[in-house]
User: Fold these one by one.
Assistant:
Number 1:
Amino acid sequence: MTTSAIRLIIGLGNPGPQYETTRHNAGFWLADHLADDLGASFSMEKGFFAQVAKARFEGENVIIAKPTTFMNRSGQAAGALMRYYKLAPDQVLVLHDELDLMPGSVKLKRGGGHAGHNGLRDIQSAFSSSDFWRLRIGIGHPRTLGLAEPVIAFVLERPRADELKGIESVIDRCRAITPALLRGDFPQATNQLHEANRV
Protein backbone atom coordinates (compact mmCIF):
# COMPACT_ATOMS: atom_id res chain seq x y z
CA MET A 1 0.00 0.00 0.00
CA THR A 2 1.76 3.13 -1.23
CA THR A 3 1.07 6.51 0.29
CA SER A 4 1.34 10.08 -0.92
CA ALA A 5 1.71 13.30 1.02
CA ILE A 6 -1.51 15.11 1.91
CA ARG A 7 -2.33 17.92 -0.52
CA LEU A 8 -6.05 18.51 0.15
CA ILE A 9 -7.52 18.92 3.64
CA ILE A 10 -11.31 19.00 3.98
CA GLY A 11 -12.90 20.02 7.27
CA LEU A 12 -16.48 18.85 7.74
CA GLY A 13 -19.27 20.85 9.30
CA ASN A 14 -22.49 22.68 8.56
CA PRO A 15 -22.48 26.24 7.19
CA GLY A 16 -24.10 29.15 9.00
CA PRO A 17 -23.65 30.89 12.34
CA GLN A 18 -26.24 28.72 14.09
CA TYR A 19 -23.97 25.69 13.64
CA GLU A 20 -20.55 27.27 14.31
CA THR A 21 -20.19 26.06 17.90
CA THR A 22 -21.89 22.65 17.54
CA ARG A 23 -20.15 19.30 17.98
CA HIS A 24 -20.74 18.39 14.32
CA ASN A 25 -18.50 21.31 13.28
CA ALA A 26 -15.33 20.06 14.97
CA GLY A 27 -13.81 19.49 11.52
CA PHE A 28 -14.35 23.16 10.65
CA TRP A 29 -12.68 24.21 13.91
CA LEU A 30 -9.54 22.23 13.09
CA ALA A 31 -9.52 23.45 9.47
CA ASP A 32 -9.56 27.06 10.69
CA HIS A 33 -6.53 26.43 12.90
CA LEU A 34 -4.59 24.65 10.16
CA ALA A 35 -5.19 27.54 7.74
CA ASP A 36 -3.89 29.95 10.40
CA ASP A 37 -0.85 27.75 11.03
CA LEU A 38 -0.02 27.76 7.30
CA GLY A 39 -0.61 31.50 6.93
CA ALA A 40 -3.61 31.07 4.64
CA SER A 41 -7.09 32.60 4.72
CA PHE A 42 -10.40 31.28 3.45
CA SER A 43 -12.31 32.79 0.56
CA MET A 44 -15.51 31.65 -1.09
CA GLU A 45 -15.00 29.56 -4.23
CA LYS A 46 -18.47 28.89 -5.66
CA GLY A 47 -17.14 26.50 -8.30
CA PHE A 48 -15.90 24.25 -5.52
CA PHE A 49 -18.98 24.67 -3.27
CA ALA A 50 -16.56 25.59 -0.49
CA GLN A 51 -14.54 28.16 1.33
CA VAL A 52 -10.97 27.49 0.22
CA ALA A 53 -7.60 28.47 1.72
CA LYS A 54 -4.53 28.04 -0.48
CA ALA A 55 -1.22 27.53 1.29
CA ARG A 56 2.36 26.49 0.57
CA PHE A 57 4.32 23.98 2.62
CA GLU A 58 7.97 23.27 1.81
CA GLY A 59 7.42 24.40 -1.77
CA GLU A 60 4.24 22.39 -2.35
CA ASN A 61 0.66 23.61 -2.72
CA VAL A 62 -1.78 22.66 0.03
CA ILE A 63 -5.52 23.27 -0.21
CA ILE A 64 -7.75 23.51 2.87
CA ALA A 65 -11.49 23.52 2.28
CA LYS A 66 -14.71 23.90 4.25
CA PRO A 67 -17.75 22.85 2.17
CA THR A 68 -20.56 25.41 2.06
CA THR A 69 -23.15 22.70 1.48
CA PHE A 70 -24.73 20.91 4.42
CA MET A 71 -22.86 17.94 5.88
CA ASN A 72 -24.69 15.31 3.84
CA ARG A 73 -23.52 16.97 0.58
CA SER A 74 -19.84 17.31 1.55
CA GLY A 75 -18.84 15.15 -1.40
CA GLN A 76 -19.87 17.87 -3.84
CA ALA A 77 -16.96 20.07 -2.72
CA ALA A 78 -14.56 17.19 -2.05
CA GLY A 79 -15.12 15.66 -5.48
CA ALA A 80 -14.82 18.98 -7.33
CA LEU A 81 -11.56 19.82 -5.57
CA MET A 82 -10.01 16.39 -6.05
CA ARG A 83 -10.82 16.38 -9.76
CA TYR A 84 -9.62 19.95 -10.37
CA TYR A 85 -6.29 19.41 -8.62
CA LYS A 86 -5.91 15.90 -10.11
CA LEU A 87 -5.38 14.25 -6.74
CA ALA A 88 -5.71 10.64 -5.65
CA PRO A 89 -7.90 9.78 -2.64
CA ASP A 90 -4.82 9.01 -0.53
CA GLN A 91 -3.68 12.64 -0.93
CA VAL A 92 -6.86 13.81 0.82
CA LEU A 93 -7.32 14.24 4.58
CA VAL A 94 -10.84 14.65 5.97
CA LEU A 95 -11.31 16.23 9.42
CA HIS A 96 -14.50 15.11 11.14
CA ASP A 97 -16.30 14.60 14.42
CA GLU A 98 -16.46 11.00 15.70
CA LEU A 99 -19.20 9.65 17.96
CA ASP A 100 -17.28 6.45 18.74
CA LEU A 101 -14.42 8.34 20.43
CA MET A 102 -14.70 10.27 23.67
CA PRO A 103 -13.80 13.99 23.81
CA GLY A 104 -10.04 14.15 24.21
CA SER A 105 -9.46 11.16 21.92
CA VAL A 106 -8.47 11.22 18.25
CA LYS A 107 -7.45 8.68 15.64
CA LEU A 108 -5.73 8.96 12.27
CA LYS A 109 -7.03 6.40 9.82
CA ARG A 110 -6.83 5.59 6.13
CA GLY A 111 -9.81 3.96 4.46
CA GLY A 112 -12.62 2.08 6.14
CA GLY A 113 -16.35 2.66 6.37
CA HIS A 114 -18.33 5.78 7.18
CA ALA A 115 -19.95 4.45 10.39
CA GLY A 116 -23.13 6.35 9.59
CA HIS A 117 -21.38 9.72 9.25
CA ASN A 118 -23.24 11.48 6.44
CA GLY A 119 -20.29 13.65 5.42
CA LEU A 120 -17.97 10.66 5.05
CA ARG A 121 -20.67 8.69 3.23
CA ASP A 122 -21.08 11.45 0.63
CA ILE A 123 -17.32 11.85 0.13
CA GLN A 124 -16.90 8.10 -0.38
CA SER A 125 -19.65 8.26 -3.00
CA ALA A 126 -18.07 11.27 -4.75
CA PHE A 127 -14.61 9.65 -4.78
CA SER A 128 -15.92 6.15 -5.63
CA SER A 129 -13.35 5.17 -3.01
CA SER A 130 -12.87 5.05 0.75
CA ASP A 131 -9.07 5.22 0.41
CA PHE A 132 -8.64 8.69 1.90
CA TRP A 133 -7.22 9.71 5.28
CA ARG A 134 -9.35 10.81 8.20
CA LEU A 135 -8.63 12.58 11.46
CA ARG A 136 -11.43 11.35 13.72
CA ILE A 137 -12.05 13.96 16.43
CA GLY A 138 -13.83 12.40 19.39
CA ILE A 139 -17.02 14.12 20.53
CA GLY A 140 -18.48 11.17 22.46
CA HIS A 141 -21.90 9.58 22.15
CA PRO A 142 -24.93 10.68 24.15
CA ARG A 143 -25.19 7.21 25.70
CA THR A 144 -21.55 7.09 26.80
CA LEU A 145 -21.85 10.64 28.15
CA GLY A 146 -24.98 9.78 30.13
CA LEU A 147 -27.30 11.94 28.02
CA ALA A 148 -30.81 10.81 27.12
CA GLU A 149 -31.16 12.43 23.71
CA PRO A 150 -31.01 11.26 20.11
CA VAL A 151 -27.73 11.47 18.22
CA ILE A 152 -29.14 13.95 15.66
CA ALA A 153 -29.86 16.45 18.44
CA PHE A 154 -26.59 15.75 20.26
CA VAL A 155 -24.30 16.53 17.32
CA LEU A 156 -26.11 19.81 16.65
CA GLU A 157 -25.58 21.09 20.20
CA ARG A 158 -22.67 22.92 21.74
CA PRO A 159 -20.31 20.66 23.74
CA ARG A 160 -20.29 21.02 27.51
CA ALA A 161 -17.29 22.78 29.02
CA ASP A 162 -15.39 19.61 29.95
CA GLU A 163 -16.06 18.09 26.52
CA LEU A 164 -14.92 21.26 24.78
CA LYS A 165 -11.65 21.19 26.73
CA GLY A 166 -11.00 17.65 25.48
CA ILE A 167 -11.84 18.56 21.87
CA GLU A 168 -9.56 21.59 22.02
CA SER A 169 -6.68 19.43 23.30
CA VAL A 170 -7.22 17.11 20.32
CA ILE A 171 -7.15 20.05 17.91
CA ASP A 172 -3.78 21.13 19.31
CA ARG A 173 -2.38 17.60 18.88
CA CYS A 174 -3.69 17.42 15.31
CA ARG A 175 -2.02 20.73 14.53
CA ALA A 176 1.28 19.34 15.82
CA ILE A 177 1.24 16.34 13.45
CA THR A 178 0.16 18.27 10.33
CA PRO A 179 3.74 18.89 9.09
CA ALA A 180 4.36 15.12 9.11
CA LEU A 181 1.13 14.54 7.17
CA LEU A 182 2.10 17.16 4.59
CA ARG A 183 5.47 15.38 4.17
CA GLY A 184 3.78 12.00 3.78
CA ASP A 185 5.36 10.67 6.97
CA PHE A 186 2.28 8.85 8.23
CA PRO A 187 4.11 6.51 10.64
CA GLN A 188 5.55 9.52 12.49
CA ALA A 189 2.19 11.29 12.52
CA THR A 190 0.39 8.18 13.78
CA ASN A 191 2.93 7.43 16.49
CA GLN A 192 2.99 11.04 17.69
CA LEU A 193 -0.79 11.32 17.77
CA HIS A 194 -1.55 7.97 19.37
CA GLU A 195 1.26 8.32 21.91
CA ALA A 196 -0.49 11.50 23.06
CA ASN A 197 -3.71 9.48 23.42
CA ARG A 198 -2.00 7.30 26.02
CA VAL A 199 -0.67 10.20 28.11
Number 2:
Amino acid sequence: MILLVVLVSILLLVLLVAYYRLNAFIAFIIVCLFMGAALNIFREPAERMSITAITQSIQTGIGKTLGSLVVIIVFGSMLGKLVAESGAAQRIANVLMQLFGRKYVQWSLMLTGFIVGIPLFYNIGFVLMVPLIFTVAARTGLPAVYLGIPMLASLSVTHGYLPPHPSPTALVNTFHADMGLTLLLGLIVAIPAIVLAGPVFSRFLKQYKQEPASLFTSEPLPESELPGMAVSILAALLPVILLAVAALLKLYAMPGSPAEELSTWIGDPVVVMLAAVLNGIILLGLARGWAVKKVMGILESAVRDVAGIILIIGGSGALTQMLLDSKVSTVITDSLTSMHMNPIVLAWVIAALIRVSVGSATVAGLTTAGILAPIALASHVNPSLMVLATGAGSLMFSHVNDGGFWMFKEYFNLSVKDTFRTWTIMETIVSVAGLIGCLILNIFI
Protein backbone atom coordinates (compact mmCIF):
# COMPACT_ATOMS: atom_id res chain seq x y z
CA MET A 1 0.00 0.00 0.00
CA ILE A 2 2.91 2.34 0.67
CA LEU A 3 4.07 2.13 -2.94
CA LEU A 4 0.49 2.68 -4.08
CA VAL A 5 0.35 5.90 -2.06
CA VAL A 6 3.58 7.08 -3.71
CA LEU A 7 2.22 6.22 -7.16
CA VAL A 8 -1.04 8.07 -6.48
CA SER A 9 0.96 11.05 -5.18
CA ILE A 10 3.03 11.20 -8.38
CA LEU A 11 -0.15 10.92 -10.46
CA LEU A 12 -1.65 13.75 -8.40
CA LEU A 13 1.40 15.88 -9.17
CA VAL A 14 1.01 15.12 -12.88
CA LEU A 15 -2.71 15.95 -12.74
CA LEU A 16 -2.23 19.25 -10.91
CA VAL A 17 0.59 20.48 -13.15
CA ALA A 18 -0.39 19.07 -16.55
CA TYR A 19 -4.20 19.15 -16.45
CA TYR A 20 -5.13 21.91 -14.02
CA ARG A 21 -2.05 24.03 -14.87
CA LEU A 22 -1.38 24.69 -11.20
CA ASN A 23 1.88 26.40 -10.29
CA ALA A 24 4.46 23.61 -9.89
CA PHE A 25 5.67 24.83 -6.48
CA ILE A 26 2.15 24.84 -5.06
CA ALA A 27 1.55 21.41 -6.59
CA PHE A 28 4.66 19.99 -4.92
CA ILE A 29 3.57 21.26 -1.48
CA ILE A 30 0.04 19.88 -1.90
CA VAL A 31 1.42 16.49 -2.95
CA CYS A 32 3.79 16.40 0.01
CA LEU A 33 0.94 17.09 2.46
CA PHE A 34 -1.24 14.49 0.74
CA MET A 35 1.52 11.88 0.80
CA GLY A 36 2.29 12.43 4.47
CA ALA A 37 -1.37 12.19 5.48
CA ALA A 38 -2.15 9.21 3.21
CA LEU A 39 0.84 7.21 4.44
CA ASN A 40 -0.36 7.61 8.03
CA ILE A 41 -3.62 5.83 7.16
CA PHE A 42 -1.81 2.60 6.27
CA ARG A 43 0.75 2.58 9.09
CA GLU A 44 0.86 1.51 12.67
CA PRO A 45 0.43 4.38 15.16
CA ALA A 46 4.08 4.21 16.21
CA GLU A 47 5.26 4.66 12.59
CA ARG A 48 3.05 7.61 11.70
CA MET A 49 4.31 11.15 11.18
CA SER A 50 2.59 13.87 13.18
CA ILE A 51 1.01 16.80 11.38
CA THR A 52 3.80 19.09 12.57
CA ALA A 53 6.42 16.55 11.47
CA ILE A 54 4.96 16.55 7.96
CA THR A 55 5.12 20.33 7.64
CA GLN A 56 8.57 20.39 9.24
CA SER A 57 9.77 17.83 6.70
CA ILE A 58 8.56 20.09 3.88
CA GLN A 59 10.37 23.11 5.31
CA THR A 60 13.54 21.09 5.90
CA GLY A 61 13.51 19.76 2.34
CA ILE A 62 13.11 23.21 0.84
CA GLY A 63 15.87 24.62 3.02
CA LYS A 64 18.34 21.78 2.42
CA THR A 65 17.84 21.86 -1.34
CA LEU A 66 17.88 25.60 -1.91
CA GLY A 67 20.57 26.30 0.66
CA SER A 68 23.27 24.91 -1.59
CA LEU A 69 21.74 25.84 -4.93
CA VAL A 70 20.27 29.34 -4.80
CA VAL A 71 23.63 31.08 -5.13
CA ILE A 72 24.66 28.93 -8.11
CA ILE A 73 21.35 29.31 -9.92
CA VAL A 74 21.15 33.07 -9.39
CA PHE A 75 24.76 33.60 -10.47
CA GLY A 76 24.13 31.40 -13.52
CA SER A 77 21.13 33.50 -14.50
CA MET A 78 23.13 36.71 -14.07
CA LEU A 79 25.95 35.45 -16.26
CA GLY A 80 23.58 34.29 -18.98
CA LYS A 81 21.77 37.60 -19.00
CA LEU A 82 25.05 39.50 -19.31
CA VAL A 83 26.19 37.31 -22.21
CA ALA A 84 22.92 37.90 -24.04
CA GLU A 85 22.32 41.59 -23.32
CA SER A 86 25.91 42.63 -24.04
CA GLY A 87 25.84 41.14 -27.53
CA ALA A 88 28.48 38.52 -26.67
CA ALA A 89 26.22 35.75 -27.99
CA GLN A 90 25.71 37.66 -31.24
CA ARG A 91 29.46 38.21 -31.60
CA ILE A 92 30.16 34.49 -31.14
CA ALA A 93 27.55 33.63 -33.77
CA ASN A 94 28.88 36.20 -36.26
CA VAL A 95 32.49 35.02 -35.99
CA LEU A 96 31.58 31.34 -36.19
CA MET A 97 29.45 31.93 -39.29
CA GLN A 98 32.37 33.70 -40.94
CA LEU A 99 34.66 30.78 -40.08
CA PHE A 100 32.29 28.03 -41.24
CA GLY A 101 30.83 29.83 -44.26
CA ARG A 102 27.40 29.38 -45.80
CA LYS A 103 27.93 25.69 -46.54
CA TYR A 104 28.38 24.83 -42.87
CA VAL A 105 26.22 27.57 -41.37
CA GLN A 106 24.23 24.96 -39.42
CA TRP A 107 27.37 23.87 -37.62
CA SER A 108 28.20 27.45 -36.71
CA LEU A 109 24.72 27.95 -35.23
CA MET A 110 24.94 24.64 -33.40
CA LEU A 111 28.29 25.60 -31.89
CA THR A 112 26.94 29.04 -30.99
CA GLY A 113 23.99 27.46 -29.20
CA PHE A 114 26.33 25.14 -27.32
CA ILE A 115 28.70 27.90 -26.18
CA VAL A 116 26.07 30.42 -25.14
CA GLY A 117 23.74 27.69 -23.91
CA ILE A 118 26.10 26.78 -21.06
CA PRO A 119 25.57 30.04 -19.15
CA LEU A 120 22.18 30.95 -20.70
CA PHE A 121 19.01 29.44 -19.25
CA TYR A 122 16.84 27.72 -21.83
CA ASN A 123 13.77 29.95 -22.03
CA ILE A 124 15.93 33.07 -22.05
CA GLY A 125 18.24 31.54 -24.63
CA PHE A 126 15.32 30.57 -26.85
CA VAL A 127 13.81 34.05 -26.87
CA LEU A 128 17.14 35.79 -27.37
CA MET A 129 18.74 33.44 -29.90
CA VAL A 130 15.79 32.64 -32.21
CA PRO A 131 15.79 36.15 -33.77
CA LEU A 132 19.44 35.51 -34.64
CA ILE A 133 18.35 32.35 -36.49
CA PHE A 134 15.79 34.38 -38.44
CA THR A 135 18.45 36.95 -39.34
CA VAL A 136 20.76 34.22 -40.69
CA ALA A 137 17.85 32.66 -42.58
CA ALA A 138 17.14 36.00 -44.28
CA ARG A 139 20.82 36.46 -45.20
CA THR A 140 21.34 32.96 -46.59
CA GLY A 141 17.90 32.20 -48.03
CA LEU A 142 17.84 28.89 -46.13
CA PRO A 143 14.70 27.71 -44.26
CA ALA A 144 14.49 28.92 -40.65
CA VAL A 145 13.54 25.47 -39.32
CA TYR A 146 16.53 23.90 -41.10
CA LEU A 147 18.84 26.44 -39.42
CA GLY A 148 17.07 26.60 -36.10
CA ILE A 149 16.97 22.93 -35.09
CA PRO A 150 20.78 22.60 -34.60
CA MET A 151 20.97 25.66 -32.36
CA LEU A 152 17.89 24.69 -30.35
CA ALA A 153 19.20 21.13 -29.96
CA SER A 154 22.32 22.64 -28.37
CA LEU A 155 20.28 24.84 -26.06
CA SER A 156 18.10 21.88 -25.06
CA VAL A 157 21.02 19.57 -24.30
CA THR A 158 22.90 22.11 -22.21
CA HIS A 159 19.66 22.83 -20.34
CA GLY A 160 19.07 19.15 -19.56
CA TYR A 161 22.60 17.78 -19.14
CA LEU A 162 25.09 20.37 -18.00
CA PRO A 163 25.74 22.39 -14.84
CA PRO A 164 25.38 25.26 -14.00
CA HIS A 165 21.82 24.94 -15.35
CA PRO A 166 19.30 24.63 -12.50
CA SER A 167 18.06 21.07 -13.05
CA PRO A 168 21.47 19.40 -13.62
CA THR A 169 22.92 21.38 -10.71
CA ALA A 170 20.11 20.20 -8.44
CA LEU A 171 20.58 16.63 -9.68
CA VAL A 172 24.29 16.83 -8.86
CA ASN A 173 23.33 17.81 -5.34
CA THR A 174 20.69 15.09 -4.93
CA PHE A 175 22.83 12.27 -6.34
CA HIS A 176 25.96 13.53 -4.49
CA ALA A 177 27.88 13.76 -7.76
CA ASP A 178 30.98 15.82 -8.49
CA MET A 179 30.13 18.98 -10.40
CA GLY A 180 33.32 19.10 -12.47
CA LEU A 181 33.22 15.42 -13.43
CA THR A 182 29.54 15.70 -14.33
CA LEU A 183 30.34 18.60 -16.64
CA LEU A 184 33.21 16.75 -18.32
CA LEU A 185 31.20 13.56 -18.82
CA GLY A 186 28.23 15.67 -19.87
CA LEU A 187 30.27 17.25 -22.64
CA ILE A 188 31.23 13.80 -23.90
CA VAL A 189 27.59 12.69 -23.98
CA ALA A 190 26.23 16.01 -25.23
CA ILE A 191 28.33 16.43 -28.38
CA PRO A 192 27.12 13.35 -30.31
CA ALA A 193 23.54 13.97 -29.11
CA ILE A 194 23.62 17.51 -30.49
CA VAL A 195 25.20 16.46 -33.79
CA LEU A 196 22.57 13.75 -34.34
CA ALA A 197 19.62 15.95 -33.39
CA GLY A 198 21.05 19.03 -35.09
CA PRO A 199 22.90 18.94 -38.41
CA VAL A 200 22.15 15.25 -39.10
CA PHE A 201 18.41 15.33 -38.38
CA SER A 202 17.86 18.77 -39.89
CA ARG A 203 19.06 17.51 -43.28
CA PHE A 204 15.54 16.10 -43.62
CA LEU A 205 13.85 19.42 -42.81
CA LYS A 206 14.61 21.58 -45.84
CA GLN A 207 11.02 21.26 -47.03
CA TYR A 208 9.75 23.36 -44.11
CA LYS A 209 10.00 26.76 -45.77
CA GLN A 210 7.43 28.69 -43.74
CA GLU A 211 8.36 32.30 -43.08
CA PRO A 212 8.96 33.00 -39.38
CA ALA A 213 6.28 34.94 -37.53
CA SER A 214 7.11 38.63 -38.06
CA LEU A 215 6.13 39.37 -34.47
CA PHE A 216 9.25 37.60 -33.22
CA THR A 217 11.86 39.08 -35.54
CA SER A 218 14.20 41.72 -34.16
CA GLU A 219 17.12 43.76 -35.34
CA PRO A 220 20.57 42.60 -34.19
CA LEU A 221 22.88 45.01 -32.39
CA PRO A 222 25.19 47.10 -34.58
CA GLU A 223 28.63 45.56 -35.09
CA SER A 224 30.30 48.52 -33.36
CA GLU A 225 28.39 47.81 -30.13
CA LEU A 226 29.44 44.16 -29.82
CA PRO A 227 32.25 42.98 -27.51
CA GLY A 228 35.30 41.25 -28.98
CA MET A 229 35.34 37.51 -29.70
CA ALA A 230 37.96 36.66 -27.07
CA VAL A 231 36.07 38.58 -24.41
CA SER A 232 32.79 36.95 -25.42
CA ILE A 233 34.21 33.42 -25.32
CA LEU A 234 35.98 33.97 -22.01
CA ALA A 235 32.84 35.40 -20.40
CA ALA A 236 30.58 32.58 -21.64
CA LEU A 237 32.91 29.66 -20.97
CA LEU A 238 34.70 30.68 -17.77
CA PRO A 239 32.56 28.31 -15.62
CA VAL A 240 33.49 25.41 -17.91
CA ILE A 241 37.16 26.39 -17.86
CA LEU A 242 37.33 26.63 -14.06
CA LEU A 243 35.46 23.37 -13.47
CA ALA A 244 37.62 21.57 -16.03
CA VAL A 245 40.84 22.92 -14.48
CA ALA A 246 39.68 21.84 -11.02
CA ALA A 247 38.77 18.34 -12.24
CA LEU A 248 42.14 17.91 -13.96
CA LEU A 249 44.06 19.16 -10.91
CA LYS A 250 42.29 16.62 -8.74
CA LEU A 251 43.48 13.80 -10.99
CA TYR A 252 47.14 14.61 -10.31
CA ALA A 253 47.02 16.09 -6.80
CA MET A 254 48.12 13.95 -3.85
CA PRO A 255 45.32 13.25 -1.35
CA GLY A 256 45.41 15.78 1.49
CA SER A 257 47.95 18.00 -0.26
CA PRO A 258 47.61 21.78 -0.68
CA ALA A 259 47.14 21.18 -4.42
CA GLU A 260 44.11 19.01 -3.75
CA GLU A 261 42.67 21.60 -1.38
CA LEU A 262 43.24 24.32 -3.99
CA SER A 263 41.59 22.25 -6.73
CA THR A 264 38.59 21.63 -4.48
CA TRP A 265 38.28 25.35 -3.78
CA ILE A 266 38.67 26.31 -7.46
CA GLY A 267 36.01 23.78 -8.40
CA ASP A 268 33.53 24.85 -5.74
CA PRO A 269 30.41 25.85 -7.72
CA VAL A 270 29.88 29.00 -5.67
CA VAL A 271 33.45 30.16 -6.30
CA VAL A 272 33.19 29.25 -9.99
CA MET A 273 29.96 31.12 -10.58
CA LEU A 274 30.96 34.16 -8.51
CA ALA A 275 34.21 34.44 -10.50
CA ALA A 276 32.27 34.09 -13.76
CA VAL A 277 29.75 36.79 -12.85
CA LEU A 278 32.42 39.24 -11.67
CA ASN A 279 34.38 38.54 -14.85
CA GLY A 280 31.23 39.18 -16.91
CA ILE A 281 30.45 42.40 -15.07
CA ILE A 282 33.92 43.73 -15.81
CA LEU A 283 34.55 42.45 -19.34
CA LEU A 284 31.03 42.74 -20.78
CA GLY A 285 29.90 45.80 -18.84
CA LEU A 286 32.22 48.16 -16.99
CA ALA A 287 35.22 47.77 -19.32
CA ARG A 288 33.01 48.77 -22.27
CA GLY A 289 31.85 51.96 -20.61
CA TRP A 290 28.53 50.76 -19.20
CA ALA A 291 27.30 52.53 -16.10
CA VAL A 292 27.15 50.48 -12.91
CA LYS A 293 23.40 51.17 -12.72
CA LYS A 294 22.83 49.60 -16.15
CA VAL A 295 24.82 46.48 -15.27
CA MET A 296 23.02 46.08 -11.95
CA GLY A 297 19.68 46.46 -13.74
CA ILE A 298 20.55 43.51 -15.98
CA LEU A 299 21.51 41.43 -12.96
CA GLU A 300 18.28 42.29 -11.15
CA SER A 301 16.18 41.30 -14.16
CA ALA A 302 18.07 38.00 -14.28
CA VAL A 303 17.00 37.24 -10.71
CA ARG A 304 13.36 37.85 -11.65
CA ASP A 305 13.72 35.50 -14.63
CA VAL A 306 14.88 32.61 -12.47
CA ALA A 307 12.54 33.01 -9.47
CA GLY A 308 10.03 30.45 -10.75
CA ILE A 309 12.73 27.85 -11.33
CA ILE A 310 14.04 28.32 -7.79
CA LEU A 311 10.57 27.64 -6.37
CA ILE A 312 10.17 24.47 -8.44
CA ILE A 313 13.52 23.17 -7.19
CA GLY A 314 12.52 24.00 -3.62
CA GLY A 315 9.26 22.09 -4.06
CA SER A 316 11.10 19.06 -5.38
CA GLY A 317 13.36 19.21 -2.34
CA ALA A 318 10.29 19.04 -0.10
CA LEU A 319 9.13 15.90 -1.92
CA THR A 320 12.56 14.29 -1.60
CA GLN A 321 12.68 15.02 2.13
CA MET A 322 9.15 13.64 2.60
CA LEU A 323 10.22 10.38 0.96
CA LEU A 324 13.19 10.20 3.32
CA ASP A 325 11.48 11.19 6.57
CA SER A 326 8.52 8.88 5.96
CA LYS A 327 10.93 5.98 5.31
CA VAL A 328 9.28 5.47 1.92
CA SER A 329 12.64 5.81 0.17
CA THR A 330 13.79 2.58 1.83
CA VAL A 331 10.72 0.71 0.58
CA ILE A 332 11.17 2.15 -2.92
CA THR A 333 14.84 1.19 -2.92
CA ASP A 334 14.10 -2.39 -1.94
CA SER A 335 11.31 -2.71 -4.52
CA LEU A 336 13.22 -1.21 -7.44
CA THR A 337 16.41 -3.09 -6.53
CA SER A 338 14.49 -6.36 -6.79
CA MET A 339 13.68 -5.49 -10.41
CA HIS A 340 17.40 -5.83 -11.26
CA MET A 341 17.16 -3.02 -13.83
CA ASN A 342 20.22 -0.97 -14.65
CA PRO A 343 19.90 2.21 -12.50
CA ILE A 344 20.87 4.36 -15.50
CA VAL A 345 18.04 2.92 -17.60
CA LEU A 346 15.65 3.14 -14.64
CA ALA A 347 16.46 6.83 -14.11
CA TRP A 348 15.95 7.57 -17.80
CA VAL A 349 12.65 5.68 -17.99
CA ILE A 350 11.12 7.31 -14.89
CA ALA A 351 12.25 10.79 -15.94
CA ALA A 352 10.91 10.22 -19.47
CA LEU A 353 7.52 9.04 -18.20
CA ILE A 354 7.15 12.04 -15.91
CA ARG A 355 8.33 14.40 -18.65
CA VAL A 356 5.76 13.06 -21.13
CA SER A 357 3.06 13.35 -18.47
CA VAL A 358 3.93 16.72 -16.95
CA GLY A 359 5.74 18.53 -19.77
CA SER A 360 8.37 20.14 -17.57
CA ALA A 361 11.92 18.84 -17.88
CA THR A 362 12.82 20.40 -14.54
CA VAL A 363 9.93 18.76 -12.67
CA ALA A 364 10.65 15.42 -14.37
CA GLY A 365 14.33 15.44 -13.50
CA LEU A 366 13.97 16.57 -9.91
CA THR A 367 11.07 14.23 -9.12
CA THR A 368 13.04 11.29 -10.53
CA ALA A 369 16.06 12.22 -8.44
CA GLY A 370 13.95 12.30 -5.30
CA ILE A 371 12.71 8.78 -6.02
CA LEU A 372 16.02 7.24 -7.07
CA ALA A 373 18.58 8.98 -4.86
CA PRO A 374 18.74 6.06 -2.39
CA ILE A 375 19.29 3.59 -5.23
CA ALA A 376 22.05 5.75 -6.69
CA LEU A 377 23.82 5.80 -3.33
CA ALA A 378 23.45 2.05 -2.88
CA SER A 379 24.53 1.10 -6.42
CA HIS A 380 27.98 1.09 -7.98
CA VAL A 381 26.93 3.38 -10.82
CA ASN A 382 28.85 6.63 -11.08
CA PRO A 383 26.51 9.34 -9.70
CA SER A 384 27.48 11.70 -12.52
CA LEU A 385 26.05 9.21 -15.01
CA MET A 386 22.84 9.09 -12.96
CA VAL A 387 22.64 12.89 -13.29
CA LEU A 388 23.12 12.70 -17.05
CA ALA A 389 20.69 9.81 -17.57
CA THR A 390 18.02 11.58 -15.55
CA GLY A 391 18.63 14.80 -17.46
CA ALA A 392 18.42 12.96 -20.78
CA GLY A 393 15.14 11.31 -19.79
CA SER A 394 13.71 14.67 -18.76
CA LEU A 395 13.99 15.89 -22.37
CA MET A 396 12.06 12.98 -23.90
CA PHE A 397 9.21 13.58 -26.39
CA SER A 398 8.24 17.19 -25.83
CA HIS A 399 4.63 17.65 -26.92
CA VAL A 400 1.53 19.78 -26.32
CA ASN A 401 1.93 19.99 -22.53
CA ASP A 402 5.39 21.59 -22.85
CA GLY A 403 5.75 25.35 -23.23
CA GLY A 404 8.80 24.85 -25.47
CA PHE A 405 6.63 22.97 -27.98
CA TRP A 406 4.31 25.96 -28.39
CA MET A 407 7.14 28.49 -28.42
CA PHE A 408 8.76 26.64 -31.32
CA LYS A 409 5.43 26.34 -33.15
CA GLU A 410 4.60 30.04 -32.86
CA TYR A 411 8.07 31.44 -33.51
CA PHE A 412 8.64 29.27 -36.58
CA ASN A 413 5.04 29.58 -37.80
CA LEU A 414 4.38 25.82 -38.03
CA SER A 415 1.27 23.66 -37.71
CA VAL A 416 0.92 21.33 -34.73
CA LYS A 417 1.61 18.34 -37.00
CA ASP A 418 4.80 19.90 -38.36
CA THR A 419 5.92 20.83 -34.85
CA PHE A 420 5.66 17.15 -33.89
CA ARG A 421 7.68 16.22 -36.97
CA THR A 422 10.46 18.70 -36.19
CA TRP A 423 10.67 19.85 -32.57
CA THR A 424 9.32 16.69 -30.90
CA ILE A 425 11.55 14.36 -32.90
CA MET A 426 14.59 16.56 -32.17
CA GLU A 427 13.91 16.39 -28.42
CA THR A 428 13.43 12.63 -28.61
CA ILE A 429 16.75 12.18 -30.43
CA VAL A 430 18.74 14.14 -27.82
CA SER A 431 17.05 12.13 -25.06
CA VAL A 432 17.71 8.68 -26.53
CA ALA A 433 21.25 9.62 -27.61
CA GLY A 434 21.94 10.79 -24.06
CA LEU A 435 20.85 7.43 -22.63
CA ILE A 436 23.03 5.54 -25.10
CA GLY A 437 25.99 7.77 -24.28
CA CYS A 438 25.55 7.15 -20.54
CA LEU A 439 25.38 3.38 -21.04
CA ILE A 440 28.56 3.43 -23.13
CA LEU A 441 30.42 5.53 -20.55
CA ASN A 442 29.21 3.18 -17.79
CA ILE A 443 31.24 0.39 -19.42
CA PHE A 444 34.46 2.31 -18.90
CA ILE A 445 33.84 4.20 -15.63
